[in-house]
Amino acid sequence: MSWASEIEGLNRIEPGARATLERDSRRVTVPAGTVVFGPGAQADNLIVVLRGAVRVQHVSESGRQIVLYRVNPGETCIMTTACLMAHEAYSAEGVTETEVDAVMVPRRTFDTMIGLSSDFRTFVFDAYAQRMTDLFLLIEDVAFQRMDIRLAQKLLELSKGAGSVGTTHQQLAAELGTAREVISRLLQEFRRRGLITSARGEIVLNDAAGLRNLAATD
Amino acid sequence: MSWASEIEGLNRIEPGARATLERDSRRVTVPAGTVVFGPGAQADNLIVVLRGAVRVQHVSESGRQIVLYRVNPGETCIMTTACLMAHEAYSAEGVTETEVDAVMVPRRTFDTMIGLSSDFRTFVFDAYAQRMTDLFLLIEDVAFQRMDIRLAQKLLELSKGAGSVGTTHQQLAAELGTAREVISRLLQEFRRRGLITSARGEIVLNDAAGLRNLAATD
DNA sequence: TATGTTTGGTGACTTGGTCACAGACGCGCG
DNA sequence: CGCGCGTCTGTGACCAAGTCACCAAACATA
């Protein structure tokens, strides 16, 4: 029940506010691959992720995709509240990448908490700031960065220190907002240079240092 | 003094909260071309624009620019508070496009107001939501939209119904995050098709309907 | 008028996106 | 097993966009 103590930014919240928060919110477990919010689906809760990750992505009419950011444990999907309040059309969707444990804070409780606790306000504004800067960095990347560098960075990010990444070219294209053919050609070049080896749905990072070196070429 | 009454979202604020807000905040006038915030400049105030416009843009190390959004009258530059709270490096800068009348709400007052007034909270969250959706649309544009369509849209937007736009090719490139040469070539094509005529620093929209038609080609 | 700066134009080249299609692999089913 | 079928990857041709180098016209002002 006492989930708030596990979360950076909420663990030292005022006792009264914390009681309200934990009493009024509901803990859920969602299987992998679930669309937790998206166009048409009105979200009436602030979602705080405890375990797993939610991928937030944009899908254009032409079918092309780009991943905007991920919501990791201890983070909150603040977009839902913002977009709800503004009654704007939701142009992004959230999909669970793994099984996810999360807490749903009802809109009403959220509003009460904001008035009640300055720690909670800080938590919420930090979340906004984090997403904003994520989006700023993404815009810079998409507008100005070469695709080979972005791909090298993404491979290192997705591998998380492990020596390989289990994704298809199509999935990588959706991550970076480009076309599959572009990924195929770049991976071929990486392979030629000995940076990776690859099989169907699997990319092995043979020379992570070399990739890091490429990724650092700003 | 009673500036809050002029602002959509603050005009029906609770009387007590409104008194606090107007007592503690300071009205300023800033000349055109002033950098009101940017890398290194710590902002300690929430800024609400009353008259004029602030352009928020990103400048990359390579010197290329892109305009992220504009803060118009009645709107607030919420980014400053967010980035201040997160203590993140500020990767964007704000420049006044015209002479600007604005209100500076100190950080302390901002925090008090958030706790005091639900109307003020709504105002703030609406502002966040607005910026977020702006950034989402920008990402979609940059990632997926053809440059000729983006340029046509931008010309119509900047002309604001008037028949012409007084900007250089370089400025348009900075708006859209591309290179001057690309703008020059596209404008040449527009000219060839009779959509515009142009002189040094001036573009005349001869066929606004034609441009709108092009811009609508999603 | 002379001179330097800003603005715009152009060609050659590289990178990235689109389209069409083909081969390779995995898997179920007769 | 052999056969289809869907998914994944490779490839060539072409177009769109960004980069680089350079030039010419317009303007500012001494």
Automatic annotation (TrEMBL), chains A, B:
Signal peptide: none annotated. Gene3D superfamilies: Jelly Rolls, Winged helix-like DNA-binding domain superfamily/Winged helix DNA-binding domain. GO terms for cellular component: cytosol. It comes from the Bacteria. InterPro entries: cNMP-bd_dom (IPR000595), cNMP-bd_dom_sf (IPR018490), Env_Response_Regulators (IPR050397), HTH_CRP (IPR012318), RmlC-like_jellyroll (IPR014710), WH-like_DNA-bd_sf (IPR036388), WH_DNA-bd_sf (IPR036390). Residues 145-209 form the HTH crp-type domain. SUPFAM superfamilies: cAMP-binding domain-like, Winged helix' DNA-binding domain. This is Crp/Fnr family transcriptional regulator.
